[in-house]
Task: inverse folding
């Protein structure tokens, strides 16, 4: 426990997201604002879903175990749907913002494109989601203790960190997919995002059988990554050019 | 007598300034006389007394220097032609305010979570005389409301007192008061803070070392805040004293009273800045009538350094108070300092300074936020961090809520182009998120974490 676990889990969970933030978002003030607003929207969705769950729990019998479990499952699914609904609302808000930015700009084009906003919004949702899942765990990891002493899994912190990392990545890719679907009216992309999110959250019900939750989540993340890359203009040729550092190979990335 | 060459005014701990956001921009060149007036951001500050409580005798008010300044933000008329740039500048300035607010909150949260002293209850200030140790909920609520009424009345009285002083031109009194306040803040409170931190980590330190450290810290702080200094050092000092003041509030305000006071202060801020008869508004109008800068108060300015422009240092040096700009060699922004910048002042040097023309041309736009806003934001986040449940999600939620409130306020500033109070939106969001996260989200997330479920 203590420092080693704390730092290890922090870097596993937040390292990639922090690097993404540092290299693509931190330089541009507008993106930072979009990031924080995305985090805020996720927070509001969580608030509303917690409210519903709380009311349901208070209205039910606390000793009825299966009922509580059922309410929890309902709470999780409802929360996922609400998060996606708020993603859609955020998309609407950013659309309006782009029109405002275009109106205010000198040359009639917005300083930031909807694809970049999609990426940043995804990172915002992901960071907030990851932070809410992980921060209390990290604070506890700093203190003394033995993980799993009562018979639970000893890998609790580690798997939580990996799950948080994959969830942050997933939110980023889902942001890109979702906004692309909304922009071009490809309803199947939106549905795919919702289904994927439900699948990932549902798979965590297998915990502590981690192979049932982590493996599918990472597979889904890889699929979402490839799909988002393709949608952002990537292709195998671009990738090859990038990897071989070929000249004039501008590798297409979601946020440029 | 001290002439402030920089507009800074140190803020003393007792001073609270509630300031609204103001944008500082370089006024347009054309007729700088008018341009100065119109384009500067005015800050009206009302000084409010705040009691400083000593840690030993919480019920004796050691010193009363409290100044509240409500600063209003106003953007210059220059905005019109620069509208295209508004949002772009707006985004940059929002970030320039996010960073210090975040730093202040980080300092406060780190202190609250590690140093036990600031969460222990060692009595109350005399401004909140009613105790909350009563058995019944109704009685406790009543006591906290009474405490709030007393506190807000003190603040209003101090504000009006300041306006009266200003109306009757008692500048020396005000300057002396502010110097005394910042002196106390930088030396006494820092000494107490250092002592508690050393106690927490069980570090032994001898008195000569402490004296050396505190002396250097305080002396450099006084110089930076009231005179000249590098911009970033000034900003750092402002952040530190805001954090210290917020910690004092967190320690000495009883639990429920603190929340009610936060709510009441936002309402007061709204009224004082926007109503025609509000003290701050009157202060600003008086200053405008006299065509002179309001005395410097505590304002954090994010304005960027302007390089060239101080063409005539001698005129600047002539010290009228508030030469803010002129005196500095352009390195510090006088405006940045905290001074009470009654905005008028900082931005409008006396007409006899032709320098301003060049200065203004060079100067880049910045936004100013009063230190009182820093303090109350930090109080909110600090109290969220001090909740007995030790939940970090609540702190994080309040932090995001305050930042979004600040962003919205700046957006409104860009739209309305006049002085705005910075507290109401942020504090409202912060309060809503605090109570809802603590009571609704926490049980949900705890249940999810215990089953290792992810949403």
Result:
């Amino acid at each position: 426990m203590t420092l080693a676990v704390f730092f290890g889990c922090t870097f596993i969970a937040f390292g990639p997201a922090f690097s993404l933030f540092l290299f693509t978002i931190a330089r541009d003030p507008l993106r930072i604002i979009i990031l924080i607003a995305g985090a805020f929207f996720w927070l509001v969705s969580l608030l509303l879903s917690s409210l519903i769950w709380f009311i349901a729990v208070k209205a039910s019998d606390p000793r009825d175990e299966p009922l509580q479990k059922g309410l929890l499952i309902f709470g999780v699914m409802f929360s996922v749907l609400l998060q996606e609904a708020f993603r859609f609302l955020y998309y609407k808000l950013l659309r309006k913002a782009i029109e405002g930015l275009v109106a205010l700009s000198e040359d009639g084009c917005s300083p930031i494109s909807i694809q970049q906003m999609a990426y940043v919004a995804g990172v915002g949702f992901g960071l907030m989601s990851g932070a809410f899942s992980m921060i209390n765990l990290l604070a506890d990891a700093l203190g003394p203790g033995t993980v799993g002493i009562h018979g639970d899994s000893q890998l609790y912190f580690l798997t939580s960190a990996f799950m948080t990392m994959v969830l942050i990545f997933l939110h980023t890719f889902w942001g890109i997919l979702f906004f692309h679907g909304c922009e071009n009216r490809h309803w199947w992309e939106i549905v795919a995002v919702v289904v994927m999110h439900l699948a990932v959250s549902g798979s965590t019900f297998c915990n502590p059988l981690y192979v049932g939750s982590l493996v599918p989540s990472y597979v889904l993340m890889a699929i979402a990554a490839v799909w988002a890359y393709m949608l952002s203009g990537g292709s195998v040729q671009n990738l090859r050019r990038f990897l071989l550092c070929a000249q004039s190979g501008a590798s297409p990335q979601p946020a440029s | 007598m001290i002439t402030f060459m920089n507009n800074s005014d140190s803020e003393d701990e007792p001073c609270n300034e509630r300031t609204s956001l103001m944008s500082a921009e370089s006024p347009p060149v054309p007729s700088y006389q008018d341009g100065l007036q119109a384009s500067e951001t005015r800050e009206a500050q009302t000084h409010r007394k705040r009691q400083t409580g000593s840690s030993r005798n919480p019920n004796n008010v050691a010193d009363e220097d409290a100044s509240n300044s409500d600063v209003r933000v106003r953007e210059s008329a220059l905005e019109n032609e620069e509208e295209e740039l508004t949002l772009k500048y707006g985004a940059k300035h929002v970030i320039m305010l996010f960073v210090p607010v975040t730093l202040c909150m980080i300092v406060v949260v780190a202190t609250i979570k590690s140093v036990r002293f600031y969460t222990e209850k060692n009595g109350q200030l005399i401004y909140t005389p009613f105790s909350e140790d009563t058995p019944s909920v109704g009685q406790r609520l009543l006591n906290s409301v009474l405490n709030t009424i007393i506190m807000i009345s003190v603040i209003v009285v101090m504000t009006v007192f300041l306006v009266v002083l200003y109306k009757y031109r008692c500048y020396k009194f005000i300057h002396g008061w502010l110097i005394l306040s910042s002196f106390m803040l930088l030396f006494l409170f820092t000494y107490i803070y250092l002592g508690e931190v050393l106690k927490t980590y069980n570090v032994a330190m001898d008195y000569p070392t402490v004296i050396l450290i505190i002396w250097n810290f305080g002396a450099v702080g006084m110089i930076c805040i009231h005179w000249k200094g590098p911009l970033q050092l000034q900003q750092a000092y402002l952040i530190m004293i805001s954090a210290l003041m917020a910690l004092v509030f967190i320690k000495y305000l009883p639990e429920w009273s603190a929340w009610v006071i936060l709510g009441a202060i936002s309402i007061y801020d709204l009224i004082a800045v926007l109503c025609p008869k509000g003290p701050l508004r009157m202060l600003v109008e008086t200053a405008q009538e006299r065509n002179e800068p309001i005395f410097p108060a505590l304002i954090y300015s994010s304005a960027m350094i302007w390089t060239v422009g101080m063409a005539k240092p001698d005129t600047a040096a002539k010290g009228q108070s508030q030469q803010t700009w002129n005196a500095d060699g352009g390195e510090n922004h006088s405006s940045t300092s905290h001074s009470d910048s009654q905005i008028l002042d900082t931005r409008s040097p006396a007409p006899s300074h032709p320098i301003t023309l060049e200065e203004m041309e060079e100067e880049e736009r910045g936004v100013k936020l009063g230190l009182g806003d820093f303090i109350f934001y930090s109080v909110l986040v600090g109290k969220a961090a001090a909740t007995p449940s030790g939940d970090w999600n609540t702190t994080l939620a309040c932090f995001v809520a305050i930042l979004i409130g600040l962003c919205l306020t700046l957006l409104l500033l860009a739209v309305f182009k006049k002085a705005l109070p910075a507290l109401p939106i942020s504090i409202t969001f912060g309060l809503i998120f605090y109570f809802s996260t603590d009571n609704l989200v926490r049980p949900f997330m705890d249940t999810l974490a215990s089953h290792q479920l992810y949403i």
Remarks:
- Chain B is about 60% helix and 5% strand.
- The beta strands of chain B are 16-19, 21-24, 51-53, 61-64, 68-71, 299-301, 366-370.
- The CA atoms of residues 129 and 147 of chain B lie 7 Å apart.
- The interface with chain A takes residues 83-84, 86-88, 91-92, 94-95, 98, 390-393, 396-397, 400-401, 403-404, 407, 433, 436-437, 439-441, 443-449, 451-455 of chain B (CB under 8 Å).
